[in-house]
Amino acid sequence: MTKLPQTLDNRHWIAKVSAAILAGGGMTFAIMAVLGRLIGANGDPRSLSAQALMWLTAVLWVLVLGTCFLFPTGRKAWAVLGGGCVVLWSLFLLLRALS
Amino acid sequence: MKIRSDILRVYREVHSWVGICAGLLLFVAFFAGAISMFEQPLQNLTSPQLDMPPPVPLSRTPDLLEKVFSAYPQARQTYTILLAPDRGLPGRVAWPVHPPHGHDAGPMFVATLAPDGTLVVRQQAITPVAHFIDMLHQELGIPLPHAISRPFMGIIALLYGMALISGVLLFLPTLARNLFAFRFREGPRKLWLDLHNLLGFFSLPFHIVMALTSVVFAFHDPIFAVQSRVFGTSHTSPHSPTHTRPHPITADQHPDAPLLTPTELVTSLETQASGFVPTILAYSQGHGGTMLRVSGQDSRYSMRGPTAGFATVDPRSGKILSADYLPGHQKTGFAILTVFFALHFGSFGGNAIRWGYVVLGLAGAGMFYTGNRLWIDARRRREKAAGLSRDSLPTKILSRLTPGWVTGCITGCLVILTAGYFCPDVMTVALVKEIYYAVFIVFIAFFMLKP
């Protein structure tokens, strides 16, 4: 690792994009699951909550894909998005166990 | 606004690669989408005139229905009463030729009564040209099997979303300086760049809506599948608020009560939802007896579908059972979500908005074309600076593919529309497809091979 002031480049673009698609996708689904749990969504596609959550998931996923290039390295992207994915899904499982 | 130069460099690369992967496909989506704003009128224009007497007055529909049911008992399962018959369905009652499955009902029988009261039935003869162009729009002009074409479209929509984010980031630092710049005397590169920025920036809200809705159209099924697994039957939370429960669409069933006549239904709807103009009464036999879904327009509000909003109605009392998708009668949440759909389809505000969408769609297509031109120009300059005397192979291919693709798509659409208008009788699904792709490929080949 160099000590130079960090400049961003696209050398790790495959790692960053795959992190955004897989880990980032998993994380947005986890956000959907946690929020749905909190508002008591029932998952019926005809219901307002299910449709609103579906839109939210799509918007978040596009945003993660668009901003993943700002991670300094591919490893960092996987760490943050993958970590977020694990933490949020754990939170969901916890919420489900508590109810 | 200042953005670090390394971030700009990263996003310039992202923007050009994402753009080059998706640009030509999005061109087809936008061009065919602009034409599809008037899919129904185009379908009427390119369909043969059916030889049948004019539709009976609405008040005689019960008489007509009785004759239809005795001659075609299967029509009881699913049938529609047409309140606004057009050239495609020039009768009063229609029902599918084959039992319907899924969204696409397939060809329909259409019926009316002759002046002497005898039943007249014809099979609908719709030329598939307008529908084909709509499918070009939905499948980005690539004839993939249906199972692949949706996710493929979704991936391109995600790339489109990335291109929008990166494009905005790139334009922000020079926004104030270049917003109204149009330097058509400083060489082609500046011209294409200014045109690209102008089109992109001023139709940005339109593009954001298109990118998000397309992602949703492609991926809503998997997302709902995850939801039903995650929130589904396993634990039903005892305190789940009632407003998120599915709407019980069951009528106060009086199975013996007769169905309302269409005239009575229209009057009843008029008092419950004035301003909503019903056009189609769709009856079907469901679990809870006869179900009725009414489609119609109300140009004062956003509509959920491309050309209509919907209401579920009790066919025996005329009472509106579900107004979730009924323009002007939706709850706030549903109304907000409907706005997204309406902003994709341009299904609000009537024909003026539709024409506006044609312009926006063509401008969008133009933006993708200018994007490709910029990419080619930038590569040419770089290659010249690196000392190459001729274009490298990728530059050469793309500089020829772009005009071929664009002119092929435009000409292909115009040829099938013209053919559909002048000889609607011979145009089958297969023939329309063959003509379009033949023209498309000939144009690409011409530009590829020309010296």
TrEMBL record, chain A:
* Residues that span the membrane, as ranges: 20-40, 52-72, 78-98
Which keywords belong to this entry?
Membrane, Transmembrane, Transmembrane helix
Report the domain of life of the source organism. Bacteria
What this protein is called in its record is: Iron transporter
Organism listed in the record = Gluconobacter kondonii
Q: What is the lineage of its organism?
A: Bacteria, Pseudomonadati, Pseudomonadota, Alphaproteobacteria, Acetobacterales
Automatic annotation (TrEMBL), chain B:
Q: Which Pfam families match?
A: PepSY_TM
**Which ranges does the record mark as transmembrane?**
14-38, 152-175, 195-219, 355-376, 397-422, 428-449
Region annotation (Disordered) maps to 235-254
Q: Which UniProt keywords apply?
A: Membrane, Transmembrane, Transmembrane helix
Q: Which residues form a coiled coil?
A: none
Q: Which domain of life is it from?
A: Bacteria
What is the protein name stated in its UniProt record?
Peptidase
Q: Which organism is it from?
A: Gluconobacter kondonii
